[in-house]
Specification:
By secondary structure, the protein is of the alpha/beta class. The protein has 16 helices and 10 strands.
């Protein structure tokens, strides 16, 4: 078994919130350069991503031989992103998908004529495939793995068909796939179709068909049913893990919790998405910290025979509420999307959580990038300690 210490990176899901990760990684790169600890290649042996984090993870993995170039590529995408690059934002597309989907949701029992081909999602994310093909250089991923620059890349999705949580991984050397309750890993050649499945936000974007063991399964966002977000990195051999979150863990509590009346549809949807994207990470971090604490109290000679091992952990998460930041930028959405989301209350401050996942607009993502940089630079010593041998 390879005893070399391996550093893992976990990039969580969260739609447009994932722009925060680009800021964190930029600051990490700056800190390592300033400390004279930076090599050309990535400081991460294992990179794992979920949902929009899977897109960031794959972009970094493709540039594993040049970490600075990989970070610059992420910044270039997120600093100038526009909604129409991710989903169709024109009036016709919004009417075909969003308005029709909401109408079917409300009056489906009256609209039998749509039963043959009902709308599949609130938004049509066809443009995202083009963005991924343009932004990613997947042959470089193969080269990075073959050259030993990168140990493994893993991304996650969730199968609507089987109910399983799926981790797709591509590694430099054969790694035995793992199976847990409702979770399984599959060694494969990672492609754009896996990324589209991993980032298919439930209800918002359509499910993606993937062929697994000879059968077709429709898959959606990997944050769904993700009980242990840190586990893939550990299964792949990580001995220390940097986790970049997308909210809730360190952000301040709401100060208007008692304001407003009955929750709008957008408020309920935003709450549901936040539960899917954010809550399991906090639970898994607590679990890993308890395991580390327990192992620390066990003598080394006894611990040597155990399957468990301590894992060094650093978590960086937003210090401000991303919902509140989104509320300041909702008017930057294209007018047809604004009209659609406004109809369900997403333009109100209490419904801004939903908007925070869909605000693929530069004014919003640039503010998240700057926040990620500030949060990370404020923890310079923690970052240096994490990467210390």
């Amino acid at each position: 078994m390879d005893s070399k210490e391996k550093t893992g990176l976990i990039l969580t899901g969260g739609g447009a919130r994932a722009a925060y990760q680009a800021g964190v990684l930029h600051a990490v790169q700056q800190i390592l350069v300033d400390a004279g600890r930076s090599a050309p290649q990535t400081p991460f042996d294992i990179i794992c991503g979920t949902s929009a984090g899977a897109l960031n993870a794959t972009a970094l993995a493709c540039r594993a031989d040049d970490f600075a170039s990989g970070v610059r590529g992420l910044l270039a995408v997120w600093e100038d992103v526009a909604a129409h690059q991710v989903y169709r934002a024109d009036s016709l597309a919004v009417l075909r998908s969003g308005a029709r989907w909401l109408s079917l949701l409300s009056f489906g029992w009256l609209l039998r004529k749509w039963h043959a081909s009902p709308p599949q999602s609130l938004l049509d994310n066809t443009p995202l495939a083009g963005l991924l093909h343009h932004a990613l250089d997947l042959p470089r991923l193969d080269a990075a793995l073959a050259d030993g620059v990168l140990h493994a890349l893993a991304i996650t999705a969730s199968s609507y068909s089987s109910g399983h949580h799926l981790t797709f991984y591509q590694s430099a050397a054969p790694i035995e796939p793992w199976v847990r309750h409702q979770r399984m890993a599959l060694a494969t050649q990672i492609g754009v179709e896996h990324l589209l499945a991993s980032s298919a936000i439930p209800f918002i974007f359509p499910a993606v068909p993937l062929y697994l063991a000879g059968r077709r399964e429709y898959c959606g966002d990997g944050s769904m049913r993700q009980l242990a977000p840190i586990a893939p990195a550990i299964h792949l051999g990580a001995t220390r893990v940097l986790v970049i979150g997308a909210g809730r863990m360190t952000e301040p509590a709401r100060d208007d919790v008692n304001s407003g009346g009955y929750p709008s549809l957008a408020q309920v949807a935003g709450h549901a998405l936040s539960s899917i994207f954010l809550d399991s990470l906090a639970v898994d971090v607590e679990r890993l910290q308890r395991v580390n604490h327990t192992l620390g109290r066990i003598p080394q000679d006894v611990r040597a025979g155990m399957a468990l091992r301590p894992v060094k952990l650093l978590v960086i998460a937003p210090s401000e509420r991303l919902d509140d930041i989104a509320a300041r930028h909702v008017l930057s959405l294209p007018p047809p999307v604004r009209t659609l989301l406004g109809g369900i209350g997403a333009l109100e401050s209490r419904g801004s959580a939903l908007a925070s996942y869909l605000l693929f607009e530069a004014s919003y993502t640039r503010e998240l990038i700057r926040l990620g940089e500030r949060d990370t630079l404020a923890r310079r010593q923690d970052v240096l300690s994490f990467f210390a041998s």
